[in-house]
Amino acid sequence: MKKKFLLAILICLVVFQLAGCNHDPVPSNDDEKVSVTMLYTMELPNFESLVESKYQNIDLRVERNAKATIDGESERRLRTGHGSDIITTTMPTGDVRNYAMDLSAEEFSSLYQASISQSLLIDGKTLFLPLPGQYSGYIYNVTLAKQIGVTEPPSSTGALMSMLDAAAERGLGIGGDGVMFAIESTDMTNVSSYFIGTQVPDFLGRSEGVIWRDRLTKREDTFVRGMADCLDLSSAMVDKGYLSPEHLTNNRSNMTPVRERMLDGTMMLTYSTVHFFDTLNLESDEYEFAMLPFLSDEGNAPWTIVAPSAYFGLNSSLAGPGKENVLRAAKQVLSVLSTAEGQAAFIKDCGASQSYLAANVPVPEKVPEGLSGCISNGYIYNVKFPAKLLLYFGRNMVSVLSNEIDITEALSNVDHYFLSGDKDIEYDQTLIGVVAGDMIYENYNVRREETGIGNLVTDAIREMTGADIAFANGGSIRGSLYEGNVFGSDLDVVCPYGNTIVVLKVKGSVIRELLQNGLTRLIQENGIPGGRFLNVSGLCYSYRAPEGNSPAKLLDITLPDGSAFDESATYKIAVTSYMCGKEGYLDNNGDGFTMLNVFSDTAPRADGVELVQETDKTFGDALQLYFQNHNGEAILLVPEGRIKVVKDNE
Question: pTM for this one?
Answer without folding.
Answer: 0.77
